[in-house]
Amino acid sequence: MSKVTNGGRTKGVSVRNLNVSYGAVNVIRDLNLEIEPGEFIVLLGASGCGKSTLLSVIAGLRDASGGQIWIGDENVTWHEPKDRDIGMVFQSYALYPQMTVRGNLSFGLRMTGGDKATIEKRVADAADVLQLTHLLDRKPRQLSGGQRQRVAIGRALVRQASVFLFDEPLSNLDAKLRTELRAELKRLHKQLGATMIFVTHDQIEALTLADRIAVMEGGAIRQFGTPKEIYRHPQNRFVAGFIGSPGMNFYDGEVRSSRKALHFAGNGFDLPLTGYEFATEPVEPIEAVLGIRPEHVGTRLTGAAPFRAATQISSVEPMGAETLLSGRLGDDPLAIRVDSLQGLDEATSIEFEIDAALVSLFDAGSGKRL
Questions:
Q1: Domains, the chain, with CATH or none
Q2: How confident is the model at residue 89 (pLDDT cuts 50, 70, 90)?
Q3: What global pTM score does this model have?
Q4: CA 76 to chain centre
Q5: Cβ-proximal residues to 58 (8 Å cutoff; 6+ apart), any chain
Q6: Which one of 126, 168, 171, 365 has the fewest CB atoms closer than 10 angstroms to its CB?
Q7: Spatial separation of the C-alpha atoms in residues 52 and 160, rounded to whole Å
Q8: Burial environment of residue 302 by CB neighbours within 10 A (0 to 12, 13 to 18, 19 or more)
Q9: For residue 1, is pLDDT > 80?
Q10: Residues near 349 by Cβ (< 8 Å), separated by ≥ 6?
Q11: Distance between CA atoms of 9 and 75, rounded to whole angstroms?
């Protein structure tokens, strides 16, 4: 396989006190983000959270109202897109329909006056890496959606840019193609070692692709960390509720002390907090929200967890390799995700454990992790 590089120009990206406004509407306010050279960063959030706007400002497609964008050691805030040393892949393939795959891949280089031998080599190398060699003489209408998106990625790749930007490039593909192209992007990033910034609303894409994820809401970054940190230790209730499918179970209650031991008093249940790592020791009693992921409800009883209960099962949802059970924790609903091989599809009642080391606690007022 040919070796594609980005010309040894991998650079970090620094977003400093960025503000973006449309008239009186502040879309992004005082946002800071530091991306190391060679990182794969995912901007994750629901529609309207500001992630695509942020990417567009980094690319130079939209102007900042305030703040700065640095790529490497250069302030590019007011540079034209062509002068930022970036490659960009859009949600729509944006291919030239009258050109062949070869023509689409080489177009940008030809417009900048590259020599023929260099262009041909870069196109050949990119086509090899993206498995497009046998398609070089076809036109976009003769390609599948996945092949067209590979061409769009290849067009950015041949530029050998220092930073690659992806704006929801897989959202128009079916589930199988998305899975295949995720794997290719992961492999491509490892091979290139280039800085990549990827926008998506899809949690699976974020968790499988990213070195670090920036979870966004309302034009702000609510948490920036590794997939493991985001999933296991959400820093606020928004992130906890946004990440995970099915979603986290939430319970209102209080953190209290009894015999010098902390516990969570919920609606009809009491959970010892032995093993929970508090971000800051709470001044109890404090109103709090308990979060439990459905897969952290233990149905293979070990006896090691300090909390055990039983519940009637009101519904069973087979999900292939896993099964989602609906039960109750105290007086409130409880979603439980189990391995289908456990044979609980016909269960009417079960016993379960909860390990406090796996739960999350949030301040009821601020929503911050306790």
A1: 13-232 (3.40.50.300), 247-363 (2.40.50.140)
A2: confident
A3: 0.90
A4: 26
A5: 13, 15, 69, 86, 163, 165, 197
A6: 365
A7: 23
A8: exposed
A9: no
A10: 310, 311, 312, 313
A11: 16
- Site of tokens 């939209």: 62
Radius of gyration for the alpha carbons in the chain, expressed in angstroms and rounded = 25
Mean pLDDT, rounded, of the chain: 90
Total residues belonging to the chain: 370
Alpha carbons 31 and 38: distance in angstroms, whole number: 21
Furthest-apart CA pair in the chain: how many Å? Answer: 79
Q: What is the SS3 string spanning the chain?
A: CCCCCCCCCCCCEEEEEEEEEECCEEEEEEEEEEECCCCEEEEECCCCCCHHHHHHHHHCCCCCCEEEEEECCEECCCCCHHHCCEEEECCCCCCCCCCCHHHHHHHHHHHCCCCHHHHHHHHHHHHHHCCCHHHCCCCHHHCCHHHHHHHHHHHHHCCCCCEEEEECCCCCCCHHHHHHHHHHHHHHHHHHCCEEEEEECCHHHHHHHCCEEEEEECCEEEEEECHHHHHHCCCEHHHHHHCCCCCCEEEEEEEEEECCEEEEECCCCEEECCCCCCCCCCCCCEEEEEEECHHHEECCCCCCCCEEEEEECCEEEECCCEEEEEEEECCEEEEEEEEHHHCCCCCCEEEEEECHHHCEEEECCCCEEC
Residue 348: what residue type?
A: T
Q: Which two tokens stand for residue 55?
A: 């990417």
Which pLDDT belongs to residue 6? 58
- Quick check: 114 pLDDT over 80? no
What is the pairing mode between strands 195-200 and 163-167? parallel
Rounded distance, CA 52 to CA 44, Å? 10
| Stronger pLDDT, 347 or 164, i.e. the higher one | 164
